[in-house]
Amino acid sequence: MEEVLSLKNSFLEESRTVTSLAELQQLKVKYLGKKGLVTSKLKFLSGISPELRPEYGKTVNEVKGYIEEQINRIESLLKKEDHKKRILSEALDITLPGKFTPFGREHPINKVLSEITRIFISMGFEVEEGPEVELDYYNFEALNMPKDHSARDMQDTFYISDDVVLRTHTSPVQIRVMEKKKPPLKIIAPGKVYRCDADISHTPMFHQVEGFMVDTAISFSDLKGVLESFIHSFFTVDTPVRFRPSYFPFTEPSAEIDIGCPFCDRKGCSVCKKSGWLEILGAGVINPRVFEMVGYNPEVYSGFAFGMGVERMAMLKYSIDDIRLFFENDMRFLKQF
Ligand code: PHE
Hints:
By secondary structure, this protein is of the alpha+beta class.
């Protein structure tokens, strides 16, 4: 009997160290489980003299009841505490300041690229793209620059292998498009090009927009009309334009197109090297040799082509004097556009 009663105290003592529901469950099993300390006391019942038996039974049941009550009390306390802890840990402090996420914006080169593209699309041109890692055949050979041609400047080309280069211009897209489509064609091809060159006005990677038109009666005057409209739309309507004879193996005749220097109003300054003019484009009437390479009949078809440097256009439009600024990603520079 005494042993039974002492279970009350030992339970009380042990229950004080309980800090979690799991621990409480263990304690419950220890005392009230099938083989628990209290339960096992009932097994002695049959060995106790009949006159003491009712009282012994009553005591065991009372202790059992007491322990059950305690367990329920502790359980509800622990549950309350758990709840409190969860509320605290999940609480949001809505008075804290938010996290600042800076906005990106369009890079000036992409901005100028879209502007150029938009103007040509408005004139009915379609946009095509070609690979930056290009076959020597498309970059040179099919553009009338065979292996021994002097216009292939070895120093300027990044060679991947004998037959594969990083394209040095967007002109190979002319060939790729003409190989798969029939005239009439009115195409522009914007993209990245690569040359082994780096100084204040050259970066190893830069952007070009190629343009060309092929049909049955295209002449140099169409080239003039398209380019003048473009220049007046991109710069200002009164920007002076000059066509100057030049040479490209894939056009004949060829021209370089200058605009009146916007830095000095054609008076002559350091940017235009006192000439009053700045070169912005290479262009010309497509060489019949190029048509032969793609299987077009040069007796039937004629066309013009041009290529412009996007960085150059951006520098002129925004009066930027160092091309490297575009690629340094200095926020103070990029924010201005
Ligand atoms: N591909 C020439 C260059 O990069 C530019 C050009 C394109 C000239 C088309 C004529 C016709 O210099």
